[in-house]
Structure formats: structure tokens, C-alpha cells
């Protein structure tokens, strides 16, 4: 019997076929990130096995295991803890993963990832078709491949494919996504060779064709998937046009690949491809074009397409055959099951903050802002289990930290009450989300998730209730545990020494609409709060000048999103005074002092202060002798961000 969501999304949940293998639905879990959970020499760890067991249970019809590098030197290795597949000694753990996937009724695909220009992380150099200098300083200097080395790499891929099949995988995948070796040969930017592997698009595609032919000969009964750019986004560097990208896809089709995964962008691309500043469905035209050009080849796609409803419609409209999804299932591994059960309102949406990539690019194991258990599946203390002792828990604050703690504690059987001084769930996130220039609805989806779960789990949330010492005395001995999740505030006292400090306006009051600023604005602070509000106000028609004490803006912004704020500041032509502090405020504007002591008067109607932020520690001192257990979570401990709030709220809820 079909579940109610399957009836609503019939195209997504219909059976499919790749090669000789049938799939239970039209969903492909994509190998979007290297986890960095493994050993430095390429062995798969229990931490990785625990993660992949969860991935195997997502319900996808095809599941792609993360990319393994195929060469013994590690020239193809992009990440410190990337898995390897260049030797049979690695196979036992691959066999376990393939079995996990098959146990859950899915087709198992192993990705082979040679990073090329972005590889050689342990070697101090990288290899690519030509010596093209790096545009990003953290990558290694390049060495040009010889023809002998090219032939060796082709054979390494074929051998890796054979190992994957011996380990129990049904097929393999090679990838050019993110600008890896396959993309380096295909692209005019990095392939400037003058021999048969360079020059014309036919020659640039030769490496790809040899790769496909070699793998298909090595594993003739097993499907091969190739991930190819529909758009490189590398025009600034002289990369391929979209037309050239599709010409290369035609070459892959002519070689007999079983499926093409259409991807977008390189790591060096100066514009976003998967962040929340890209609207869902923005890149669908690329897969639609591929499906039209190659009707007899399976097309899979999922770039910035997090919604099962949209994916179902895309399949119905012939935009692609399979929905390729990864990050939305990192955020919520139950996504597909919730869709099948018509519970999409309970989904933790991937908000496109790219916490996963920020961690990865710092050579750290990846985590997810929305999913506090990602990477901790192997640890029993992260599992939601019945509480040994049922307790009455009071939580101060209905922001992300408080609500995450409330939901998790409730699942374990505790009696939970949330006290919120405002009128709704969400805390300060509501105000700042409404000013987000990228995609406010992604951030507001966090609020809606907590509202939905509070309602469905019947969590008692009491609004317009401010917790203080007097309030606590009125409910003394009614609760066993108190979690302070009251967030942080702008530290207005930090400006008490400045003449005219009484004229300053708190950023939160502007963000929530309590204060309407004038036409001309000075924004003090260029962290994520100041930038978000300044960009929004400028977009609304205000004239904004930013004052920042540090040398650079966006100091507290995730590494993968810093560039976006910098680009917006440039696009909006917002004047920014860095290495400068606020020296005084008058009714006419603000006096700003540079690090060199030079003073500049900036005319303004409103001077807004967005930092420093101060954690609401007062309640810890007031409640210390009033409750058995006292804990803190999120910004109430130290002002940080959404990911820390969610993770800490969960850890408290799961362990109390």
C-alpha cells in the first residue's frame, strides 16, 4: 500500500532503472561532500561507517558513496581525511558500506574522485593538464601531467572501479564537480596543452572519453555515471561556455555513459552555485537542456533544489529523470520518509548556510548547522533514548537553542515548559531573518519547524513571560532543571563613554521594526548582524555607511559566506570605514576616528549599533540557588550563531 505522500508525489516515488538495476524511486543520494571522518592514510573509520549507515537508510533509490581517491601517491587527494581506493587493503570497509546500501534496498554507486588542481594536499603540489597558477592561495602549485602520467591515471580509475565492484557496489561514478581533474582537462581555463589532449574541445574531451572507455571495459556489466558541469561559472578566468559544457556532455553520451549528473560551478568560481543566495530551482534550466539534448540518457540533477514537491514536478515536466540530493538529507536524513508520509512540515530544511563546506575548507570533519547529530552517529550519547529519570524542565527562551533542547528533551520523556518573553517562537532570528538579502524564507523555515514541532509534540510554550529572580521565586521547587537559552543582546554600555551615546539605536530594535531609522544611517559593526541589516536597509533605499574596528568586514561570518557579504557591499556601493571606531554622536551624525587618529564626520539621521554582543548571563547568577540543575545553551553562554545554538540545545536535551 502506498503511503499518502507517495500518492501526492507519484513521479518521485515511481520505480526506475539504471543499467540492469531497478531503483525503488527516482531519488539519487549524491556524494556532495567528503566527510573528513576517516584516517589520514585513507582508511574508513567507525565514525564514517555510522554516518553511511544513516545515509543508507534515507530511502533513496540510488545511493552514492563519497568520493575516494584512486592513486597511491595521493596526487588526487583533496582533503586531509579523504578515503582511498587505490589498493585492495581498503576494501573491507567498502564492502560494509555496499552491504548497508543493499540492506536498505538501494542501488550502490561508488564515486571515484581525483581532485587534480585541488589535490596533493599532503604533497605540496598538485597535478593538472597545464601549469595554470592557482587563483586561491591555499591550493598547491601545479605540475603539468605527461602523457605517461595521463595513461596511468586512466588505468588507476579503471582499477578503482573494479575494486568498487568487487566490494559489492553496483556501479561507479567519476566527477568533474567543483573543478576536479576531469573538469581540469575539459576546461579551456586549465587545459592549455598543445598536444592531442588540448586545444579543441574534441581534444580537451579526450581524457574524459578515455576514462569512460577504460572504466566501461573494466566493468562492462555495471553502470557508469559522470558528473559534468552544465555551467562552470568561470568566465572571469576564461573557462568553458555553457555551450561547450553541453558539447562535452554529448561526448560522454556518445561514449555510452549510463547517467549524467548535471552540476554547477568550481571552487574558484566568483559566484555562488549552491548557497542560500541562489533561489531554489535557479539552475533547473541546465538539466532541462540536458534532458532535451540527450533524451535517451538518464539525467540526474539537484543543485539548489531542496524541495521534494518541486523535484516531483520537475520529473513530471521532463526536466530530469532522477532527483540528486545530498545536503538536504544531511540536514534531515528523514526527508524522503517524511515526504512519503506527507509530513513535509516536519522537515528540517537545508538553509544553504554551507557550514558543511566551511568546515571542509578548513580541513575539519564536516557538520551541519541544522543537524546536530551529523558526524556523531557513532556516539551513543548523541542518540535520543528514554530518560533514566523523568524530570520537569523549564527552558528560558524560545529561540533555536531553547526549542531544540525542548523538542529533544520531550522526545526522551521529560516534562518540558518553555518561557518566552516575546510573542512567538524564534527569538532574535525572526528579526534578522526578515532582513536577510539571500533568502529569508530559508531562515524562517527554522522558526516554522520549531513552531510545528512544538504544536505536534504538545510542548507548553508560555509567551509574554519574562523570567527573572522574582518570577523564579514564584515557581520555586516546581522544576528540576532550568535551561537558560535567553540569547544575547547588543552591549550598549560599551558606548557609555562616547558623547551622545543616548542617541544610539540597537540593531535588534531596527530589525524587529520597533524603531524606524532615518534616510541616512551609520551602522556600527560589520559582523553578520551589522552587514545583514546594512544590506537590507540599503536595498530599501537608505543611505548606509558602515564603521568597523577591524581591518576587514565579516569577521564572524562563516568562511563560505564571507565573500557573499563582500560582494553585496560592493554591488550596493555601501561605504565602509574599516580600522575605525565611533567617537561621538550628534543629531547631525557620527564622528568616526581611524586607527591613525584621524577624525571624519559622517552625516546621519540614525546611528545603529550592532555589536559587541553580550550574552545574557544575569539569569545564571539569579537562579544559581533556586533550582537543582542549571544549564545554559546558545548565545546565552557566549554570543555566536545559529549552528552553535541548535547543537548546544540538542546536546543538553539529549543528555539531561
Descriptive notes:
The protein has 22 helices and 27 strands. The strands form seven sheets. The protein has an eight-stranded parallel barrel with strand order 3-4-5-8-9-10-11-12, surrounded by seven helices. Strands 15-14-13-16-27 form a five-stranded parallel β-sheet. The chain is of the alpha/beta class and 656 residues long.
Record keyword descriptors for this entry.
alpha/beta, 656 residues, 8-stranded parallel barrel, 5-stranded parallel beta sheet, 22 helices, 32% helix
Structure at a glance:
Keywords: Flavoprotein, FMN, Iron, Iron-sulfur, Metal-binding, Oxidoreductase. With 656 residues, the protein is of the alpha/beta class.
Largest sheet: 8 strands, parallel, barrel
In whole angstroms, the N-to-C terminal distance is: 40 Å
How many β strands by DSSP?
27
The helical percent reads 25-40%
Detail the topology: elements first, then pairings.
Elements: H1 4-8, E1 16-18, E2 21-23, E3 27-29, H2 46-56, E4 62-68, H3 91-103, E5 107-112, E6 126-128, E7 142-144, H4 147-166, E8 171-175, H5 181-186, H6 201-204, H7 206-218, E9 224-231, H8 242-254, E10 259-264, H9 284-293, E11 298-301, H10 308-316, E12 322-325, H11 327-331, H12 335-340, H13 355-360, E13 392-396, H14 400-411, E14 415-419, H15 429-433, H16 440-456, E15 460-462, H17 469-474, E16 481-484, E17 488-490, E18 505-506, H18 507-511, E19 520-524, H19 528-539, E20 543-547, H20 559-571, E21 575-577, E22 580-585, E23 589-594, E24 599-603, E25 606-609, E26 613-615, H21 618-623, E27 629-632, H22 642-655
Parallel strand pairs: 3-4, 3-12, 4-5, 5-8, 6-7, 8-9, 9-10, 10-11, 11-12, 13-14, 13-16, 14-15, 16-27, 18-25, 19-20, 19-25, 20-21
Antiparallel strand pairs: 1-2, 17-26, 22-23, 23-24
Helix pairs in contact: 2-3, 4-7, 14-16, 14-22
Amino acid at each position: 500500500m502506498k503511503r499518502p505522500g507517495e500518492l501526492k508525489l507519484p513521479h518521485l516515488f515511481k520505480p526506475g532503472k539504471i543499467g540492469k538495476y531497478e531503483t525503488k524511486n527516482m531519488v539519487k543520494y549524491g556524494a556532495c561532500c567528503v566527510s573528513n571522518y576517516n584516517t589520514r592514510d585513507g582508511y574508513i573509520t567507525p565514525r564514517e561507517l555510522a554516518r553511511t549507515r544513516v545515509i543508507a537508510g534515507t530511502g533513496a533509490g540510488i545511493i552514492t558513496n563519497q568520493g575516494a581517491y584512486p592513486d597511491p601517491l595521493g596526487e588526487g587527494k583533496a582533503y586531509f581525511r579523504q578515503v582511498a581506493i587505490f589498493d585492495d587493503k581498503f576494501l573491507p570497509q567498502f564492502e560494509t558500506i555496499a552491504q548497508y546500501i543493499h540492506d536498505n534496498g538501494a542501488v550502490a554507486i561508488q564515486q571515484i574522485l581525483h581532485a587534480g588542481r585541488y589535490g596533493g594536499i599532503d604533497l605540496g603540489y598538485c597535478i593538472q593538464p597545464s601549469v595554470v597558477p592557482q587563483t586561491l592561495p591555499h591550493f598547491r602549485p601545479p605540475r603539468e601531467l605527461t602523457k605517461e602520467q595521463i595513461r596511468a591515471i586512466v588505468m588507476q580509475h579503471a582499477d578503482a572501479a573494479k575494486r568498487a565492484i568487487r566490494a559489492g557496489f553496483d556501479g561507479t561514478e567519476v566527477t568533474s564537480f567543483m573543478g576536479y581533474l576531469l573538469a581540469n582537462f575539459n576546461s579551456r581555463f586549465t587545459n592549455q596543452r598543445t598536444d592531442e589532449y588540448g586545444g579543441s574541445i574534441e581534444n580537451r574531451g579526450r581524457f574524459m572519453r578515455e576514462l569512460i572507455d577504460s572504466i566501461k571495459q573494466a566493468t562492462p556489466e555495471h553502470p557508469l555515471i559522470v558528473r559534468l558541469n552544465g555551467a562552470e561559472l568561470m568566465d572571469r578566468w576564461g573557462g568553458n561556455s555553457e555551450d561547450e559544457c553541453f558539447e562535452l556532455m554529448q561526448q560522454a553520451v556518445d561514449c555510452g555513459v549510463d547517467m549524467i549528473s548535471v552540476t554547477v560551478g568550481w571552487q574558484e568560481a566568483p559566484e555562488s552555485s549552491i548557497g542560500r543566495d541562489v533561489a531554489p530551482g535557479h539552475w533547473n534550466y541546465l538539466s532541462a537542456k540536458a534532458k532535451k539534448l540527450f533524451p535517451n540518457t538518464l539525467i540526474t540533477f539537484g543543485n539548489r533544489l531542496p524541495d521534494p514537491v518541486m523535484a516531483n514536478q520537475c520529473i513530471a515536466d521532463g526536466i530530469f529523470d532522477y532527483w540528486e540530493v545530498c545536503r538536504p538529507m544531511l540536514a534531515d536524513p528523514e526527508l524522503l520518509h517524511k515526504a512519503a508520509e506527507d509530513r513535509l512540515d516536519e522537515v528540517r530544511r537545508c538553509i544553504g548556510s554551507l557550514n558543511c563546506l566551511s568546515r571542509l575548507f578548513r580541513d575539519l570533519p564536516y557538520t551541519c548547522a541544522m543537524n546536530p547529530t551529523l558526524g556523531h552517529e557513532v556516539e551513543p550519547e548523541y542518540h535520543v533514548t528514554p530518560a533514566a529519570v523523568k524530570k520537569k524542565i523549564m527552558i528560558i527562551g524560545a529561540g533555536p537553542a531553547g526549542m531544540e533542547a525542548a523538542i529533544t528533551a520531550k522526545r526522551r520523556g521529560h516534562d518540558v515548559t518553555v518561557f518566552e518573553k516575546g510573542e512567538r517562537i524564534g527569538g532574535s532570528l525572526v528579526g534578522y531573518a526578515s532582513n536577510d538579502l539571500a533568502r529569508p524564507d530559508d531562515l524562517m523555515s527554522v522558526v516554522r519547524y520549531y513552531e510545528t514541532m512544538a504544536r505536534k509534540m504538545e510542548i507548553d510554550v508560555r509567551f509574554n513571560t519574562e523570567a527573572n529572580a522574582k518570577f523564579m521565586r514564584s515557581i520555586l521547587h516546581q522544576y528540576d532543571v532550568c535551561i537558560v537559552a535567553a540569547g544575547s543582546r547588543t552591549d550598549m554600555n560599551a558606548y557609555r563613554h562616547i558623547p551622545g551615546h543616548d542617541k544610539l539605536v540597537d540593531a535588534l530594535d531596527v530589525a524587529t521594526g520597533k524603531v524606524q531609522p532615518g534616510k541616512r544611517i551609520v551602522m556600527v559593526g560589520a559582523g553578520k548582524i551589522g552587514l545583514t541589516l546594512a544590506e537590507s536597509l540599503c536595498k530599501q533605499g537608505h543611505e548606509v555607511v558602515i564603521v568597523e574596528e577591524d581591518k576587514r568586514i565579516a569577521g564572524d561570518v562563516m568562511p563560505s559566506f564571507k565573500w557573499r557579504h563582500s560582494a553585496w557591499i560592493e554591488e550596493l556601493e555601501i561605504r565602509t570605514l574599516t580600522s575605525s571606531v565611533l567617537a561621538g554622536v550628534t543629531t547631525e551624525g557620527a564622528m568616526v576616528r581611524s586607527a591613525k587618529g584621524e577624525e571624519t564626520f559622517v552625516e546621519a539621521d540614525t546611528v545603529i549599533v550592532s555589536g559587541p554582543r553580550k550574552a545574557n548571563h544575569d539569569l545564571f547568577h539569579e537562579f544559581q540557588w533556586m533550582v537543582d540543575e542549571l544549564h545554559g545553551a546558545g548565545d546565552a553562554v557566549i554570543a555566536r550563531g545559529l549552528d552553535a545554538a541548535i547543537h548546544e540545545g540538542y546536546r543538553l536535551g539529549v543528555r539531561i
